[in-house]
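Q: My collaborator sent me two sequences in one message, no labels, and asked for predicted structures for both. Can we handle them in order? The first one she listed is below.
A: Yes, handling them in the order given. First sequence, followed by its structure tokens:
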Amino acid sequence: MDAFCGLYISGDGVVKIDPETAEVTNRFASKRECAEFIESDARIETGWPLWLEWANLHGVTEWPMRLVPITPFVLGGMFAVQNMEAVTWENAFERYDALSLKLHGLPDGEKIPFKS
């Protein structure tokens, strides 16, 4: 799980699931291939620079806390500490579940009701 609750799930290979849309964003043939992908761009794939900036401003967040965008990235939210809040991973998944259900099946650019 990355800083924003992006999940890496292994089974027959590994998949990464976008928490905001519940879509599979990456597929890997093996755990090694997945690890090499994460290592190739760890700043983006783990979210640690934003998490570090958050920690410097608000204090360290530890398990089970995750950073969640106040305005979701998929709805144009900024990838910036000002758009983040720390919540438990359970709360994050409740938010993401509600959002992904609203987004499911909609064409790109469709307007949806959303309260931040």
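Q: And the one she listed second?
A: Here it is, processed independently of the first:
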Amino acid sequence: MPFRRAPADDQDSTALTFDQYASLCAELAVEHGAHASVYSRYNLDEEQQRREHGLWKARFRSDIPLAERFDAQVAVFRRWLENRRG
């Protein structure tokens, strides 16, 4: 049975994919003081960023393996960003 994608206004749907959210978090960790420009690149305003962080945190609390994969992915993206900077 195919699964239907949740509607865009679904309270539990995230705006970012797993990889996009990991990339966002890596950029926030590396780009000290430039958070507004980072959020802007992901098309998130203040309300959306708080909602996104909240939804992902709730997912990670209920799915420890997902949280572990996320931490590993953030580390990969962070290393790439740091190496790119030199």
